[in-house]
Amino acid sequence: MKRIAVLTSGGDAPGMNAALRAVTRCGIARGWEVFGVHQGYAGLISGDFRPLTARSVGGIIQLGGTILGSARSPEFKTEEGRMKALWELGQQEIEAVVIIGGNGSQAGASALSKMGFPVVGVASTIDNDLVGSDVTIGVDTALNIALEALDRLKTTASSHQRAFLLEVMGRNCGYLALEVGIAGGAEAIVIPEIKTEPEEIVQIFRHAYERGKTHACAVVAEGAAYNAAKLAAYFSEHQARIGYELRSTTLGHVQRGGAPTAYDRLLASRLGAGAVDVLASGEKGVLVGMIKGQVTTTSLDKVVGTQKPIDPALFQLARVLDT
Ligand code: ADP
């Protein structure tokens, strides 16, 4: 192995830069040349490869986002697009690519791997929906940002006897909402994996009101059948029964923008280094993730098209603690 490339793809996640830094420095430590591909798969197709040095990845471990840029590339989903990418990789004599990203990005990694090119994925998404890693790069930071928002909302909600809906990201996965809800002491949690009727939330809020709670909060996953907008529409017709005045906040991209937490920097450093170790060992077509505290590889075939389930025991715990 002499030359590798690294790219960040799909939704950005705090810690991607730390992973990029680890891949670069660990690759250089092995005597390899490392190239950064700009704008994800779009850059792979257009051949936007730039050399990375130990210095060019200096001062980025504390930065959110990704210095390489990220993009969504519909062209890469086509065989023709991927053929162009393979041609560009051949032109630069790149022997393997490290792909830092989430579910969609790893589907792209798998597709490239199936065309015979050595690929290693690094699990990075704030959604934490990737099979092959108990926790993915960026989740911890997103969780802490959402938690701070919930704490703040509870303070103002208490002053005004209000009920709040806080919508968090996560695509089709309820992990973020569930964890934030438990850590922030929300009265209700609404996630895609567990069917919840809006009337259940009305009852939870009403019950809290009758017991004299000064506020009530529900953390809602963006992918839930009843997201914050739909719940708010339902509640507007049942205000009198709920008791509290209602407000709704959608956190949106704020969750992605933070400086990575210590946990995310460490995780990203370990997984980035792990990706280089994996390539050096000759393994390919795998995702590098953290399972039971160990850097672990999982075949991309097993990762793609499977969604990590949430832990139902955590949802039950949330129900008990909400009382
Ligand atoms: P994330 O990694 O955040 O889940 P996306 O779902 O947006 O990101 O996917 C990122 C990119 O990965 C897409 O724009 C596309 O270029 C590529 N991709 C996604 N799915 C596939 C697929 N099935 N085959 C090939 N490439 C894919």
What features would you describe in this structure?
43% of the residues lie in helices and 19% in strands. It is of the alpha/beta class and 323 residues long. The chain folds into two domains: 3-138 and 260-303, Rossmann fold, CATH 3.40.50.450; 140-256, Phosphofructokinase domain (Rossmann fold), CATH 3.40.50. The chain is elongated. 50% of the residues are buried. The mean pLDDT is 95. It binds adenosine-5'-diphosphate. The site of adenosine-5'-diphosphate (ADP) has 17 residues, from helix 4.
Beta-strand content bin: 15-25%
Question: Describe the biggest sheet?
Answer: 7 strands, mixed
Strands ordered across the widest β-sheet: 3-2-1-4-5-10-11
| CATH fold naming of the largest domain | Rossmann fold
Structural domain count: 2
Instruction: Provide the gyration radius in Å.
Output: 22 Å
User: How many β-strands, per DSSP?
Assistant: 11
At the first level of CATH, the class of the largest domain is Alpha Beta
What structural class results from the helix and strand content? alpha/beta
The H-and-E topology, N to C, reads as: EHEHEHEHEHEHEHEHHEHEEHH
